[in-house]
Protein 1
Amino acid sequence: MRSVRRRRPAAGLLSASLTVLSAALLTGCFASGGADGGSGGSDGLPSGSSSGGRLRVALAFPPTENFSPYGADATLLSRLGVTEGLTRLDGNGAATPALAESWTRENDRTWLFTLREARFQDGTEVTPAAVAASLTHATRAKPLPTALSGVSLTATPSGDHRVRVTTEAADPALPQRLAGPSLAVLAPKAFKAFKADGANGANGANGKQGAAGGAKAGEGARPDLVATATGPFALAKVNGSASATLNRFDDYWGGRAHASGIDAKFIADGTARANALRSGETDIAEAIPVSQAASLTEGTAREVPTARNTSLVLNTRSGVFADPAIRAAARAAIDTPALAKGVYEGHADPGQGLYGPALTWAEGKRVRPAGRARPASAQDVRAALKGRAVTLATYDNRPELPETAQVLQQRLEKAGFTVKLTVREYGRLESDALAGKFDAVVAARNSMLDTGDPVSILSSDFTCDGSYNLALLCDKAVDRAVTTADAVADQGERQDAAMAAEARILGTDAVVPLVHQRIIVGVAPSVRGVDLDPYERSLVTAGTRR
């Protein structure tokens, strides 16, 4: 394994001629989304410039876990430029330097990461001990971060500038995995509230001091994210689920950010986000509804092809969809091209699988699902329901989802189902969905968000022990296929194995891919340097300004 190196320039500015040597990882070709600007110094400007005013950002999803980095809120933190990990992903899904400037693979299970000179937002130095303790906390979080689904790792300091990370089993995707937003590196101060006696006074969670120097985070443990991360912007104040205030971190290793801070508002209603952009109340609005895109000022709607899929996920553990034939009937009733053309007004592609057309490597490797059950007839569906309705749930943070659910309701009822719709805000839906309280869920999921590795999402979403298994699927053949894929190191062969596992999963009809999304971000004409990230991990960077 070749090392990956990036040295910090003497003045703390990002080098315009930076050359990154990519590790021999399992990277897939990702179709470019036409980014408006990348991390640190976009639009050809140096990262060190710092004359801009504050940025006003409207986000679709409010924090649901008090900004815990271990769950869904982790992406909010990375998109606002608060948190970073040891690595980050480039546009092709390869791991590139972040807090680690280089790494080498010592053997099948052990990697050595060399840290760059950097500071936490509380002014303390990023040390090997601090990094190891932070990663240890992540491994002990309950529930486990999805990036660590199926993976057991240990992090230990190794000298003045290095951290050694060892996995229980070989993990060729480890550098990509450590780029996951839920594995951000935090200062020791973030975990100060975890008392040695097991009480976490700040968050009401439990924790005990671990041998590796990190607290053992118990159920619900939430580190303090106020000025304890390493990104260009520090979280200063949180107003519940309504808004957050962030200030520029002047000692950011990549150079001072252009903007002096960020005023973020969490607006679940997509039309309200679009209106805020139109009225000049916000500078950046994510997830603009397709119905609003055409009415925005020319040039302000930026469409980004992503690896995000909208899917119908069926509860395989309990209820009527525990029967494969009933699941097959639901799948057969759906017209995915009509959804892409109608609900998404052409801003999406019909569902092909778990890896959509934005991942260009997938098209030539797709494997036809095998072993699918014969769809039950409408008469058999009605008999199985015995007069009961199936509950179809979704959330309204992404406005196309309720409309998609309504179309599915109509299609399913033609196939013999009686359907009851439940629409909530995502934060009020997730726990019930994971607990199997619905028969079916319409959900949007970026298949490469957690690690950038095509196998990792299969492990987290579709295996017996998966941490985000909405389908509650537990199929031995699927688990074997995912385990086989996860052991493959070669890029092309790993992709092949992932597609074989995808075919196994689709063969169960636990998930029905509906459309592959293109996300629309609203950007005011005066704003430059927004990172239109196909992985949806980044939005505001050190180079973003107005």
Protein 2
Amino acid sequence: MPMTEQATGAQHPQPRARNGGPSSASVEHLTGAQSLIRSLEEVGADTVFGLPGGCILPAYDPLMDSTRVRHILVRHEQGAGHAATGYAQATGKVGVCMVTSGPGATNLVTPIADAAMDSVPLVAITGQVASAAIGTDAFQEADICGITMPITKHNFLVTRAEDIAHTIAEAFHIASTGRPGPVLVDIAKDALQAKTTFSWPPSMDLPGYRPVTKPHAKQIREAAKLITQARRPVLYVGGGVMKAGATAELKVLAELTGAPVTTTLMALGSFPDSHPLHVGMPGMHGSVTAVTALQKADLIVALGARFDDRVTGRLDSFAPYAKIVHADIDPAEIGKNRAADVPIVGDAREVIADLVQAVQAEHTEGHTGDYDAWWKDLNRWRETYPVGYDLPEDGSLSPQQVIERIGELAPEGTIFAAGVGQHQMWASHFINYEQPSTWLNSGGAGTMGYAVPAAMGAKAGMPDRAVWAIDGDGCFQMTNQELTTCALNNIPIKVAIINNGALGMVRQWQTLFYNQRYSNTVLHSGADTDGVPAKGTRVPDFVKLSEAMGCYAIRCEDPADLDKVIAEANAINDRPVVIDFIVHEDAMVWPMVAAGTSNDEVMAARGVRPDFGDNED
């Protein structure tokens, strides 16, 4: 869903004909590299995460003189990309990363793909070999435009200095409007070195790019009629509502209709978790109530969601009784996985605002929904199958309890970034998200190593907010070097390592589906033959490792120390803090819908399948 200019905080010039530039623009004589930095300043980019190298080096010289753009030197290009994504998700602005050619550019492929899956506005700037050498397999050459074509919203190869300014303007406009996404700008080294003229704002030429934001009135009226006629409606809210800045409108619509709201992993915080209309997160590890509400609904109103497989389970059995209203800024999403009875193309904020008026009109005419029987079912499921956990019998730390207490003791407005796996799912369930943009994660791509650099980016963009990274010991070992970046750049994030000595989610699947054959999922050395990490192994020792990178580090193994160490971490704000929580290795994520099965087969816990009774089918 599109970001408005007001929401992003960036200044995005509106498209105009290439020959219709403003007459009032001042003209300066600069190098292409100077033009690039000036362009970043003018579009409102205040932070760039990057790592210099030969082909992008000309841009780093004028960057040194900029007083408007802060550059944060990362330790790995993947960290630059995830940091830019975390910055964008936390602030609503376009995230920016800048690296050199060849391996520097290819190290951005994962965060670019991640941003594409989660519709994050990102501009990635890469250096390229000189234009005459392109295609010759020159040193550190890679066809990054070709490589990233399937995972960018658009990309540009710039070989002329005079094209740099308008290309940057176009890149920011494309990244932040319509359905947000990553845009790559690959600039040849000789274009950065050449002389050119610079004027701002530049003219832009995007003849095929006209995102539709205003929904069709007839479709809105049809949707409103279905909402008031339904007996078992569900508002299925995706990340597009957050991207559109439509959370206030969503609350009005939900309270106006009285329909239950389920928020996807990418939408947590777009509707308060504590609100009585909220029934939880849907999907493979969603709440029983949310999963079952979608299965038994007679109407699903999908707002900025894409019916992905982690929500639907086996698609041919998903929501068999439901009519579908599907609203999305991207027309390619509508009908892609589930046919829509009422398709609505438009910006979520405008769609929801128009739906509110249309539902009010229905109410004025005496058409109101009767959902009393529906809420009796929903409330019974909520009471019978709440999301919960058992404490380990051996008195060791429960990972769920650790994450729950971090959430409860964190300052108001804290931003949480999670890696991928068990800890991600526990963080989605056991921390309450009351405000938008306080939950950052890699939803679509499921990128291990996301949390630390994304938290770094979020803290750089929102320095007055506390930022916790909830990470697993597997994820942490992929990108923890960015803690050095945090320590040296006064970015005091807090990191909770949920250390169970294994690749937890993979191990859970091995427990459930592979007869407890733990092939290559134990992370510490000295594993026992049954796959359980040997007690006392510390390879690596995360406390020593974190201290070596300039962090304050603590280890916590005793539940009696839990609140004390979390409070200690919250009180330290002059450096990054890392807590190594040694947790029980056998904890599992429940509820669960096994991959490839129907959501009707949701398990509330191991060996516990909900019983809804025949009268509800």
Protein 3
Amino acid sequence: MSPVADVETHCPYCALQCGTRLTREDGRTRVEPTAFPVNQGGLCQKGWTAPAVLDTPGRLTRPLVRGADGRLAPATWEEALDTIAGRLREIRAAHGPDAVGVFGGGGLTNEKAYQLGKFARVALGTSQIDYNGRFCMSSAAAAGTAAFGLDRGLPFPVTDLAAAEVVLLAGANPAETMPPLMRHLARAQLIVIDPRRTPTAEAAALHLQPAPGTDLALALGLLHLAVTEGHADHGYLNKRTTGFEAAWKRAAAWWPERVERVTGVPVAEMREAVGLLAGARRAYVLTGRGAEQHSKGTDTVAAFINLALTLGLPGREGSGYGCLTGQGNGQGGREHGQKADQLPGYRMLADPAARAHVAEVWGVSPDELPGPGRSAYELLDALGTDGGPRALLVFGSNPVVSAPRAARIADRLKSLDLLVVADFVPSETAELADVVLPVTQWAEEEGTMTSLEGRVLRRRRLLTPPGEARSDLDVLHGIAVRLGQDPGRFPTAPREVFEELRRASRGGKADYSGISYERLDAGEALHWPCPDTGAGAQAHPGTPRLFLDGFAHPDGLARFAEVEHRDAAETPGADFPLYATTGRVLAQYQSGAQTRRVPELAAAAPEAFVEVHPDTARRHGLHEGAMARVVSARGAALARVRLIGSLRTDTVFLPFHFAGAGRANLITSPALDPRSRMPEFKVCAVRLEPAEAGL
């Protein structure tokens, strides 16, 4: 019998970051939930099966370098890193520092996200860095920052939701995307806004089912009713907000009957929704990807924030507005510098004071730091083009599956002079790489994550990495040193990186300077901002609830946004008569690179499918179980038909977790929100065909 090892850590998947205990005995890793506040002893199907990925067949354990024969072959770390550094030097010398791009991920620890941003801007000198969180939270971040002066997914603990009387969920399906959250919503009457009757909608007191791309019109209509039916909290508006009159002037034109014509949601249901929210002593408005992933996603989220402000909810204990962050470190991942326009501490890269502070911590001149670069899709779309990057380093992301207009993005990746992918499984993106670097997984590394409620958590190591796998911090160190950087500038110990992160974030909006491994390991619940105010009794307790005394603008007031509905970039027409929308299912996660390798999850959701109303299927010559082509102006996805009687007859739905011909993102639109640069994943125009028609 081998000795038993165990450690308390957190689930590797969504931003709920459920507490878990991992045990290793006789060569097998087991997981059990802990009584951590967000999951209270529960886990979802993905959490229970998470250890299966640790020992998955095909796990990357040795570096791979593509040879002259075009095949990836095992190499030593020295060979792989020397190859990368040599090629990077050549490309930078020929085309300049911006000829190298970096693409990160919302699942990276805070330490890795921080070091990645520093590596790009200091070791590479490039502005061309962004991450897949741009596809996840950017619209809510832009809207929240404009409204409140600060972006944190939930500005209150998840546990506050348990006392809610009414919760409006706009474009969120937590029953599938983060099931343990549902136990906190069990007492509340739920109002769910979603074109589909999801499992969350099934649990709702009221389900509003708008046409895809019309959420903004619906939010304007709800605000109209809140004002005209006497539910506006004028005392709160006068004391705690500014800009209401301009926002109301826009919403005044969206009378309920007009909204019904645009959205398809009956006036009576809109009126009931507003009445429920306004009549509750404790009420919340929560948004998710369904509201965000649009070419007008920032305005849509802003419109729901306007509704919450009109009812006097944000900044009041027991009520509020929040956004359900998606990826495991979607919150921390955008706070510390891997986003194109940001520096650590949620500082903005274009701010001279921010540049000076971070440059001092990094030991460089502010003038050496490049300016803001391209956003995620724009970066990927520019690869290999004139003026675009000729090399790309990818950490913790799989854009061949996850990016919109996926076939074009795969072509752009293939056109590069150098593609480097650091991953622990051979993802679809890794299969295209010139160099593949095997890196550690969640149970094999130390670090911190930041949950959707802004709580900083410890990730703890249980296992020794298999084979020759190294941490991403080791990878960045190895490349940086080969590019001439001082070895001490890119440490490999997570604790050492976090100590530097604390200094870099000091005084920023996301101030982590008062958070330490010692305090986290002692069990303290620390939500940022948590400035360094001293030790012991002088230590800052963190900020679990934001905005109770004022919003983060200089005058302490929340800002209304003056927004107007506009159509999606694509709407149905003669050639493409249906809306298509995309999303997640319970048994899979993100691009599926991990979960498709877990037998239990693969059995539960084995292949791409398309949900279709029976009448719609009949009109297109399709039946239950048939293979269909879902065709847009950009391409076609192959999927098995599922007949869903509760679906709108003008809408089809595809999950985006599957690879190959089943990629939902083969059809999605690259239209971008002008402020957040979020692609319009949630709506495009399509037609359905029997699969034989395209074979």
Protein 4
Amino acid sequence: MDHDSTDSPEAPGLRKARPGSEPAGQQADLPPQDLGAQDLGAQDLSAQDLSAQDLAADDVDPATVNAEEDDEARLPEVAEESGEAVGEGPLAIGHAAIENAVRLAPTSPGVYRMLNAASDVLYVGKAKNVRKRLSSYARVTAPQPARILRMIATTVSVEIISTTTETEALLLEANLIKQLRPRFNVQLRDDKSFPYILITGDHWAPQILKHRGAQTRTGQYFGPFASAGAVNRTITALQRAFLMRSCTDAFFESRTRPCLLYQIRRCSGPCTHEIDFPGYTELVREAKDFLSGRSRLVKQELATEMEKASAELEFETAALYRDRLAALSAIQSQQGINPRTVEEADVFAIHQEGGYSCVEVFFFRTGQNWGNRAYFPRAEKSFTPEEVLASFLAQFYDDKPPPKLILLSHGIEESELMADALSIKAGFKVEVATPRRGEKKELIAHALTNAREALGRKLADTATQGRLLAGLVTTLGLSHPLKRIEVYDNSHIQGTNAVGAMIVAGPDGFIKNQYRKFNIKSEGLTPGDDYAMMREVLQRRFKRLTTPAAEGDAAKPRPDDDSFPQWPDLVIIDGGRGQLNAAREIFEGLGLSQVALLAVAKGPDRDAGRETLFMPDREAIKLEPRDPVLYFIQRLRDEAHRFVIGSHRKLRKKDIREAGLQEIPGIGPSRKRALLHHFGTLKEIERASIADLGKVRGVSAESARKIFEFFHAESG
């Protein structure tokens, strides 16, 4: 039944420790966590979570690119398969190198690595009998696929690692492939850790939150989920169903009144004892039962309590039970298919088209569908679906715990060996099966449909991106196709926390794992000198590429290498003729002539659609406002701006936390204490509106405005 939204949402059927709540007209504070569509912290883009480990000379930090919504991986570049026969000379050299390794190879299980003249690993393989396996490569008259012949022709040496068992060899092979990324192996790309739901166990009022990474905190973990978005949606629904807190311990301890989540019935208010310890413990038990697969029992208990409250004419309490039941139903409806007989399994389905492979993975835990994700492993066209799937599977579980059941769309040759290896890794029996009938077959069919559709979408997106790149080549009058575009921008506030950034785009869209940020380090730099900042960024970036080959292999880019650094075909600078000239001086000083240079100046009044394009020794270019190429350039520039602003804000927040609120003009120790006492954390002060800041004792309207502007100032 309907009820006043300002009523205090006491957890139904639970004891209330103390009566009362804040007046309905008084605005409650928000706890520091996501509020679904009300995510006030969206400006802190997760792509800006930059690793602390600098590359080489401590110049650049790699972006982790764990976006909150897991994007589908980009398509790999498929190696061109030459139709020409491999020369007898190189083949003879390769056969001789392998034959030499055969003489020293053991007859026991092990892993072998084939290397080229530059000591790059070409291929990693495993065998039950290493000598016998290498002998198959050494036979000159044996028929081999073109891929194997190219590999043999490039091989100059072979390295061997002996193992005790074949299962150990399988696990080691997968680990080495992920580390070394050999050219002739199937490569699992865009591999990232999966998020889990954590119900903490180190506080009297357990917290429910999203967790990614090492499971070191005390508590119970539920997962994996396919994406952070799936976890966020599930947590939001679980909060409505079980009224568990999601705020941090620091925020929890600082509360003197319930926050907004209590008012909108997504928390039971344990921080201010709106619910007592036994009552909250019961809510936590119900949440764990639901996530552990006992959802039917939990729903039955809630339905029973709802009917009991209704029979006793406690309609407000009955309505709350009804809302909790609806939230649980919403979770299960969002999960799509939920198997009836499969309690715990991962489902893998592979589809090949156009020389590409897509592996769709579904996660089923506690009888519930916890999401799916598409992968696009790198593999040459000659690999069969079974070969791709077998190699993918071993690499996928290299750093992840396997479930009790793994279902495959295609039977792999060594399924029993794979099951044994994963059983050893997991500590319990793991079954690898290819179902032929029943519900498991239906799950495979559903995954195959998703794999086919995901690959179709990717191929369509890649085709569109290809047309835009071709249009950009024509517009700029370039003589070569564009495979790698780098866009540079910088950000600062009056010269403080200056940071530069580089984003990368190619035929498959943005390559986020190669984004980089550059902390500006030059001493004596005039605050706000954008030209000097751009010079420093470009010098540090391209000095690496121009390092002589004798000093390192970093200057020798490989066409099949995804690692940093690589040579760009086009560099785009956010700015006008001045920025272009500054970049041109750097390029000339480093002797760079093969990289095209473009500067994009904003239109009058920073009007998007009226940009001017500048290139060296060329007249300025003006495109029509509706030109698709102009939209493409704007998108590249805006992505660089988004990334650099996020990096700058991260540095600025770090400085604020280190220096304290005293850095804000007019904020001394007493006002700092008042703000922290009112809001709890610095992050909440940053999120607060001017009106909320003005409510703090001792903070005037002018001070509130200064605080707000300090946190929300536009970066230059």
